[in-house]
Amino acid sequence: MSWRVVHVTNVDQMSLHLDSLKVKRGDDELKIPLADIFSIVIEDLTCKLTGRLIVELSKHNILVLVCGQDHLPETQLLPVTGHFGQHKRMTRQLEWDDDKKGELWKKVVGQKIFNQTRIMERAKIEQPRINRLLNLLSEIEPFDRTNCEAQAAKIYFNSFFGEGYHRSNKEIIENAALNYGYSIFHSAIARTIVAKGLLPSIGIFHRGERNPFNLASDIIEPFRQIVDAYVIEQPPDEFLTKQYRLDLINLLHSRISIDGKLQTVIRAIDIFVGSIIEYFDTGNKIKTPNAKKIAFHEL
Amino acid sequence: MRVFIMFDLPVETKAQIRTYNKFRKRLIQDGFLMMQYSIYIKSCLNKDAAQQTVNKVKRYLPKDGHVRSLVITEKQFENMMILVGDEDKNIELLGDNRTIEF
């Protein structure tokens, strides 16, 4: 039942006290039960953490992100073993069937493109463009051999940011915001994958040799649209302010429809990853997040 | 949801003091905060989580003394009036807010 996100920008020391995170700032000492915490984002470069606390954070499978001077998540704390049945789970994962992987990837890309059409509809993009995406949606093959994903992404992003737009252009402030939001989601997914005893580096479709989180890069796809929708609806100012970064982190609490119910992103990730494991074990239906209905979390 | 645990435990013999300390410490480990002496509270996400919390406490209850629990909603908790004194900073912090900022 972990549901809190702790965002640290100005703290002296964090330590452990009776299964709680003890935060010291000046004369204040505040405690938060570890069992409540889902993730901690540390943006304070001078904050001290005790070794004892780091061990307990890892035991509770808490996602700890440490950000660099540019405020982007730079490093992450991952437990060596996150799950009691880890060995069994990992051996099974290495034996995942190729046909099933192809089908799963088809489903993931399909859901991603469908979610993109929902976001376009929310933003009142003209219908012909949405129809082009829906056409691509009907043409996806296993493993997305015809690369519908990239074609859809091009139409999708250009609809919002103009024809000259490119995701890799670092000058565009929206890209920085998207990257920040994605990396928060990416790490949250990596944390859940490890907590469930899976190998994060063995993906379904992604096989980057230098990407230790190929599986997270696969799973994030149908979640990205939540970040997109937020950045489109509330564009950032010239630079990413602290409030804006906090808003992006808050997207973890926004709700998305999965398995017919609205769930927080944290929970939806859990359900999605769980259903993937079941899909490979027993062939059960995959439960994918559906952007048909999304709701942002308000503080 | 807020879960209250209120108790009176005998503290006359050394063994009784030990039982008392143990119980108090377990409550804090489970995420309870001391609101006043012998009154501990914890905020939970929903009704199920609150019930689960109470069930967990039931597993390490002391034999003697008097312990009771109460579950109320966040709204009802907010309606509580403080007649004398200030709100504890930690209690203020650990409400139903999902993001905590330092």
TrEMBL record, chain A:
<dbReference type="GO" id="GO:0004520">
    <property type="term" value="F:DNA endonuclease activity"/>
</dbReference>
<dbReference type="InterPro" id="IPR002729">
    <property type="entry name" value="CRISPR-assoc_Cas1"/>
</dbReference>
<dbReference type="Pfam" id="PF01867">
    <property type="entry name" value="Cas_Cas1"/>
</dbReference>
<feature type="binding site">
    <location>
        <position position="206"/>
    </location>
    <ligand>
        <name>Mn(2+)</name>
    </ligand>
</feature>
<comment type="function">
    <text>CRISPR (clustered regularly interspaced short palindromic repeat), is an adaptive immune system that provides protection against mobile genetic elements (viruses, transposable elements and conjugative plasmids). CRISPR clusters contain spacers, sequences complementary to antecedent mobile elements, and target invading nucleic acids. CRISPR clusters are transcribed and processed into CRISPR RNA (crRNA). Acts as a dsDNA endonuclease. Involved in the integration of spacer DNA into the CRISPR cassette.</text>
</comment>
<keyword id="KW-0464">Manganese</keyword>
<protein>
    <recommendedName>
        <fullName>CRISPR-associated endonuclease Cas1</fullName>
        <ecNumber>3.1.-.-</ecNumber>
    </recommendedName>
</protein>
<keyword id="KW-0378">Hydrolase</keyword>
<dbReference type="InterPro" id="IPR019855">
    <property type="entry name" value="CRISPR-assoc_Cas1_NMENI"/>
</dbReference>
<dbReference type="GO" id="GO:0003677">
    <property type="term" value="F:DNA binding"/>
</dbReference>
<dbReference type="GO" id="GO:0046872">
    <property type="term" value="F:metal ion binding"/>
</dbReference>
<dbReference type="InterPro" id="IPR042206">
    <property type="entry name" value="CRISPR-assoc_Cas1_C"/>
</dbReference>
<comment type="similarity">
    <text>Belongs to the CRISPR-associated endonuclease Cas1 family.</text>
</comment>
<dbReference type="InterPro" id="IPR050646">
    <property type="entry name" value="Cas1"/>
</dbReference>
<keyword id="KW-0238">DNA-binding</keyword>
<feature type="binding site">
    <location>
        <position position="149"/>
    </location>
    <ligand>
        <name>Mn(2+)</name>
    </ligand>
</feature>
<dbReference type="GO" id="GO:0043571">
    <property type="term" value="P:maintenance of CRISPR repeat elements"/>
</dbReference>
<keyword id="KW-0479">Metal-binding</keyword>
<dbReference type="GO" id="GO:0051607">
    <property type="term" value="P:defense response to virus"/>
</dbReference>
<keyword id="KW-0460">Magnesium</keyword>
<comment type="subunit">
    <text>Homodimer, forms a heterotetramer with a Cas2 homodimer.</text>
</comment>
<keyword id="KW-0051">Antiviral defense</keyword>
<dbReference type="GO" id="GO:0016787">
    <property type="term" value="F:hydrolase activity"/>
</dbReference>
<feature type="binding site">
    <location>
        <position position="221"/>
    </location>
    <ligand>
        <name>Mn(2+)</name>
    </ligand>
</feature>
<keyword id="KW-0540">Nuclease</keyword>
<keyword id="KW-0255">Endonuclease</keyword>
